[in-house]
């Protein structure tokens, strides 16, 4: 290994450690919430299950094969080594939980710069949804989320 390669590797490890984004149980970013996206009114109510797809929490509606990428309500954070999330109100959700979501269905174009793979939202969308941008409703932006009793 030459000195330049060693320096680049050491720099990458340092950035990773400082950012706290590299561990065995995450994709390199905290659970995505709608922080900073502005206020929206819920347009739909869906019941389904939280699923974990390679570190991206998704929502699978009852009776559907498709899982929508779930953007959690503002203030939601990852907890338990990114195995679950906690909303600002303190409610925790984990894969397998049955939930009701009031929210808005979006395509990538509904996110800031969402179709640009080099932007923050575009790179998250590409990781969680893949490179195919042809689907219209592939994201569920949650306004509220509750457990189904």
In summary, what is this structure?
The protein has 149 residues and is of the alpha+beta class.
Name the features.
globular; alpha+beta; 149 residues; 5-stranded mixed β-barrel; 32% strand; 2 helices; OB fold (Dihydrolipoamide Acetyltransferase, E2P); disordered N terminus
Question: Taking Cα atoms only, what radius of gyration do you get, to the nearest Å?
Answer: 17 Å
- Count of DSSP H/I helices: 2
Overall morphology: globular
- The tally of structural domains comes to 2
- Here the CATH topology of the largest domain equals OB fold (Dihydrolipoamide Acetyltransferase, E2P)
Residue share in helices? 10-25%
Question: Ends: how far apart?
Answer: 57 Å
Q: Which structural class matches the secondary elements?
A: alpha+beta
Low-confidence stretches: 3-28
What does the main sheet amount to?
5 strands, mixed, barrel
Mean pLDDT: 81
Please, could you describe this protein's structure?
This protein is α+β, with helices and mostly antiparallel strands and 149 residues long. The chain has two domains: 1-26; 31-147, OB fold (Dihydrolipoamide Acetyltransferase, E2P) (Beta Barrel). It contains two helices and eight strands, in the order αβββββββαβ. The protein has helices at 3-19, 120-129; strands spanning 44-53, 56-61, 67-71, 77-79, 84-86, 92-93, 98-106, 139-147. The strands form two sheets. It has a five-stranded mixed beta barrel with strand order 1-2-3-8-7. Strands 4-5-6 form a three-stranded antiparallel beta sheet, with no helix packed on it. A hairpin with a 5-residue loop joins β2 (56-61) and β3 (67-71). The longest helix is centred in the first third of the chain and has 17 residues, at 3-19. It is globular, with a radius of gyration of 17 Å. It starts with a helix and ends with a strand.
């Amino acid at each position: 290994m030459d000195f330049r390669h060693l320096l680049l590797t050491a720099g990458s490890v340092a950035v990773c450690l400082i950012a706290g984004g590299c561990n065995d149980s995450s994709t390199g970013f905290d659970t995505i919430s709608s922080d900073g996206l502005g206020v929206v009114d819920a347009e739909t109510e869906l019941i389904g299950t939280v699923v974990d797809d390679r570190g991206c929490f998704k929502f699978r509606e009852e009776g559907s094969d498709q899982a929508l990428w779930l953007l959690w309500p503002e203030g939601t954070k990852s907890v338990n080594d990114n195995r679950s999330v906690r909303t600002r109100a303190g409610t925790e959700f984990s894969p397998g939980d049955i939930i009701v979501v009031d929210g808005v269905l979006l395509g990538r174009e509904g996110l800031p710069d969402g179709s640009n793979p080099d932007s923050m939202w575009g790179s998250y969308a590409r990781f969680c949804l893949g490179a195919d941008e042809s689907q219209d409703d592939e994201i569920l932006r949650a306004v509220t989320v509750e457990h189904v009793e």
